[in-house]
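Continuing from the previous page...

OK, I double-checked the sequence for F-box/kelch-repeat protein against my notes and this is the correct one:
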Amino acid sequence: MLRDQQVLTLDSASSSSSAPDLTLSEKLTSGSSNCVSESLQVAWSEKGGQVKAPVNCYSKKNKVCSGSGSPAIESWGSEMEDADQNGEVNTSELIGGIGRELTISCLLRLPRSYYYDVASVNRSFYSLVRSGELYRLRREARIVEQMIYCSCNVLEWDGFDPCRQRWFSITSMPAIECFTLADKESLAVGTNILVFGRRVEAHVVLRYSLLTNSWTTGEMMNTPRCLFGSASFGEKAIVAGGIGENGTLNSAELYDSEMQTWTTLPNMNRARQMCSGFFMDGKFYVIGGKAEKHNEILSCAEEFDLENGTWRLIPDMAQGLNGGSGAPPLVAVVNNELYAADYASKEVKKYDKENNAWITLGSLPGRYTSVHGWGLAFRSCGDMLIVIGGISVGGSGVIEICSWVPNNGLPDWKIIGTHHSGSFVYNCAVMSC
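Thanks. Re-ran it with the corrected sequence; updated structure tokens here:
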């Protein structure tokens, strides 16, 4: 059963940068040091601590002083050498004043966009951030933030922090031919992004790690496929349907990002491809798509109960959405309510659970490049619906992110991010951790 999640917010000016690799710098800048220190003071205060003086993020041994060649830097370097030689890092005392347990408790409440700064403080912080322990503890404490990742140029991905309204880039994907010449699916799960493609002779999976800012080969599904429906919750994800080696599939699989394993689930009632997936009310749904025979467009959906391991067919749940001639249904869930972007009428709709029907709420942002829904992204991000689309300006592409918090009124879309890139969204994923 999915648990309620708390979303952190942070106001900040818009900026753009690259996501640094998690390698230790020789010296932490005073700006980053102050930022992290002040944020930890606030977090400690919220925890109930009394802040009588600035919290020292470093032990006396590692206190950062101005100027090059300082004893602090030499001591820090010596500690890192010792850690490397011993093959392990001591994180028993991260902030000398409050100890390891309260240090981690404070870091859990620090916006994770600051974790790269935290990793630069010393070897202990670096080890803690890169280990993934903070993200696991955040999940247990129900502390979640969203980051938006989209690919608008072949092999290139850009990230967007909606809290700070800040763009950043991540390392490029390896130049594998199938990712440059064919469509690919993507999925954010845990602290990873999975990208699925198909070579002439076989399928291929690439895995991006937030912890290392790097791409590696991912684990293959038990039944490799493309054009499937998928969705994630925490460190788990489900894929269903799609096209396999022998045609359209009715099989489904569960992925565990921490174990990097695939588990085969019971089969759906109907085989389908070019479908969409989502989680709602603690259950997984797959909706729309095409059947194997005669290119039949499916108006039904299926609901998977994770506790009982059973599928339930829902007739006509996709009725009134776009047909099978374009992209799979563009759907997103906010606060356990299902919404859809109708790319033909350029309207946003809400699903009426009681009557199994779709209600038109208003218009989508309408000026973006789209080919029957391809090139347009529609996602949930915390309590927001977001639309990501591209436009051409002066011969170059611009990507815009529009957001709206659903309420009882008409959709009121606000542009929260603009970035010079391609004008076509090939892939998009929202990472929650």
